[in-house]
Amino acid sequence: MKELSSLQIERLKYQPKLPSSLAGGINNLSLTEGNKTKAVKDCEQIEELFKNTYGKPVVTFKTSSVNEASPKRNIGVILSGGQAPGGHNVIAGLYDALKQANPENKLYGFLGGPSGIIDGEYIEFTSEKINAYRNTGGFDIIGSGRTKLETEEQFQKALQVCKNLGITGVVIIGGDDSNTNAAMLAEWFVKNNAGIQVIGCPKTIDGDLKNEQIEISFGFDTATKTYAELIGNILRDANSAKKYWHFIKLMGRSATHVGLEVALQTQPNITLISEEVEEKKMSLKQIVDYIANIVAKRADMGKNFGIALIPEGLIEFIPEIKSMISNLNDVLAELETDSSFKSADDNTKFETIKNKLNAQDSAVFNSLPVLIKQQLLMDRDPHGNVQVSKIETEKLLIEMVSTKLAEMKKAGKYNGKFSAQCHFFGYEGRCAFPSNFDADYCYSLGYNAFALIKFGLTGYLSSVKNLSAPASEWVAGGVPLTMMMNMEKRHGQFKPVIKKALVELNGPVFKVLEENREVWAFEDKYIFPGSIQYFGPSSVCDITTETLKLENAAKLTAV
Ligand code: FBP
Fold it and tell me: For this structure, is 42 an active site residue?
């Protein structure tokens, strides 16, 4: 029986590239400090909450001719939140740096996400274990979870677990919520003189953990290429059979970076961008009209087929629904301990909600199909987010567009045939073998995280920049986590969180869609990207995303 796929056997041998500043060795580094930093918003509140870790400078590493010995250290690592391709390589990079610094160093992996550090569930990594996971997708090496770290009791338990293992540094690999955890833990450890540093690594396929200092979160490259391959295949199927409209929901909890990137890679007929819907204050009805009009116009051209990309988070950006969900969250937080509500049937639940919401929100809630109402009442995740991956927006839109087209038909404004298929692509891309870009980037982020620990830093996010250039020219360093924070309402209360980067409607990436979508809607300029290539010519193996290419090019022009 086969134990590994042929691809995995070859990928295990791949040696990820490091920036030349790090390639000289972990003990041959010097650190340069930039200016003091401040939070992206709500500075006073963030400074008050992070008295010990606020305002630190951005730092960068250079190779140094001086070889600095490294004292023995034990480090713990946590994979947190949704899976993203390349997580295993972050751990491999961290492990290699730590062993290179001092072979007696130990790396512990906390199991099942942040809860592992609280409950003392861990493994000690060996070279054998690490080698079996190099360049593979997934987070299965230690598992992941979404536990929010915020209570005194959790911090005390984490401290005790770290003390028992002699751990003086913790690396949290996660998205905005997980790195908020990292910032909280870092602050608490300093405040309590624990002698434990905390470093984050920017992960999420959503691509929304980015700013001036973080060009992209890892996983975005591989996940979008995976979705683009699948969508390219569907485009070709639709263009062959010419009988279906495919409505495809794409992951990305809030921001539409994934949808936008995939649209640029494949050029489908319709791409909805949540941020634009919000900016233009489009109602659900207007969105439905927009889609139905394109379907009808294509039908007039004899084309009863097409592809529409729907962002996962759309529903939360439609102004009337956004307002309703925000108030619904407060109502649900209030009802959290009400056991009679929890055990009630759907109709009783809907009635209770209707009575607790104001008249306008109540009308919006009521206007939604039962299925969507049920999905909106599902538990929030531990960070207070609506679980949008479980809300079937693609089905909602198919139903509403279908109704609209039937009305148009009656009025003599549509004479086509609308047969729709729905898809949801999300989980398909989160554990793919990391592309060469993600394999290199992740390994560098992990290696760099240890460098930040070695220089005594805490409350920092591992950063590797200049990513459009070859890996040797990448710039390694660190960004204070508090620099990315602001206050947001979660579970009915204002909390410090890392601000999500949404699609910028005046940014270079959205502009490409805006300039082309009229043509793409009707002229079928489909592109078929095919699968990610790991071996072969650089022109197919080393391509970055359109998002990274366009954003970095715009930064260069601005300079
Ligand atoms: P992270 O922000 O933790 O990386 O997770 C992102 C994501 O993949 C979203 O796109 C999606 O909405 C969510 O995770 C799904 O979560 P779950 O894996 O818990 O179903």
Answer: no
